[in-house]
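REVIEWER CHECKLIST
Item 1: Sequence provided? yes
Item 2: Single chain? yes
Item 3: Sequence as submitted:
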Amino acid sequence: MHWRRPHHREQSMENVLYTICADNKIRIWAPMERHGPSVLQLWNEIDMAASIQPRHLVQTEQATRRYGFIIDSRDFALAMERVVQCENLHDKNHQALEHLLEVASKNPEICVVLDGKGHMCAWGLENVGSKVRSSANIFNIAHVEGLHLSLPSEALPHEDYAQFYPFSGGVFDDSFTILAHYFDGRIEWLDSKIHILFDPTPRKRRLISRAIWSGHGGAIKKIVRTPVGKMLISRTDDNKATIWRQRSASAGPVLVQQSSLLSDLHIHRTLLLDDGKFLVNLHHNAVSFWDVRPFHGTMLEKCDFQLSSKPLCVLLIPTTDAKSSTVYIAAIGVDMAGIAWEIDLPPDDGYVNGTDGVNGNRRYLRQFCTFNLGVEEDVSYIIPVDPAGSRVKISGFLDLFATDIALSYTHGGTVRT
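Item 4: Structure as written out by the authors:
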């Protein structure tokens, strides 16, 4: 829903309500009959499906999905005013600007329809709420292509939508900003100029993505990273975890969400494997192996175990062949007894499906051995040494740590490596 906003807070104007509906219709509601049975009456509607009809029709649910948002007349007028002040009227955008100046003279509200495939249609709404309704009150402004968004490609049903908040201003005085809230938990900051956004000529970069924000809905309990520092995983008390990838940007290193997962079991410890493509969660009486390459992590297998004491950690055991697709992990308890598992990592281009090894007859996770480190005193914690071993290096804003040295300490103050 969207309520029309006045040009100034002190300005009084008739309420207008826009509803963007699941049947691909945008309905405009206004108080046309003051003595009618309801406060708002249906003034008009826009068929979003009919507004965008691509040349190559694909009859899938995603292909017929439409998105819509409203640009209030106040924001459209302000954006046009700033463009006229800043733009060189003799450049190649002059024709598109002239067209929008003619549109702005009607003081319309703007209804924008998107299909998520790069197509956009814009409609002007004139004299919204007037008792005399005419087909001329709704007129087309532009049909454009090349408006690409970061819509989720692997979204769950309840995540497959987005809402938009447009306004004048942003990076530059003549910027026009659109905040896109994707229902998978991300917010994208999109920057453009109003005449570039609605320019009917082909453009490759109609919108510039300035940033994408995402995160947790609750307090973060723990953050774990890979030894080289390129990948992180953060998790909350309700066992929701997000996997982040460190990426270089012009302003410095940034974190980009790669995947997320929700575990039915309490996550006691987490270990990232193969540069963050997979991970192992240590639970109280089980370990689970996850594929976190897709946006939604998938549990591939779970293995129950029994230790004689509370498990403290799950560690990667170094091997002589760093490129091997087989890795070994170990969980160690308070009494320094532990269990080791062997994991066969799926290939980089392999499609993985199923839980508890249900992918044909292949199993990824199996118990390898049990051991006891021979320390008679109970320990409080065991961690990889950070940083240690070889010469300390820096990876962006995260330093490296060694995988061949671990440190334990006891309640009595004894430290062992």
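Item 5: Key structural point noted by reviewer: The chain has four helices and 29 strands.
Item 6: Recommendation: ____
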